[in-house]
Design goal:
flat; two-stranded parallel sheet; alpha+beta; plasmid; about 60 residues
Length: about 60
């Protein structure tokens, strides 16, 4: 079974927020071999470097 999660999943676990217990259960399910954790990478992509912005003509 594939279990898709968003980047908030990582934050919930890291900072032990409101839904961290549910996230732990999902991790345990995957560790037991009953699922495959797939993390959407939309929010985990690194920020473009300053050089990339300068190459595009953006100044910040």
């Amino acid at each position: 079974m594939n279990i898709y999660v968003e980047t908030n999943f990582v934050l919930e676990l890291t900072f032990e927020q409101e839904q961290s217990a549910s996230c732990e259960q999902i991790l345990q399910t995957c560790e037991a071999g009953q699922g495959h954790l797939i993390i959407e990478n939309l929010g985990l992509k690194p920020r473009p470097s300053r050089t990339a912005f300068l190459d595009l003509g953006y100044i910040f």
